[in-house]
Amino acid sequence: MTEKNNTMTIEEIEATIPHRYPFLLVDMMKEVEEGKRGIGIKNVTANEWFFEGHFPERKVMPGVLIVEALAQVACITMLRGIDSSKKVPLFGGIEKMRFRKPVVPGDTLHLKFTLTKQRRELGWGEVEATVNGEVAAIGTISFALVDR
Question: Which entry of 34, 54, 118, 144 is annotated as an active-site residue?
Answer without folding.
Answer: 54
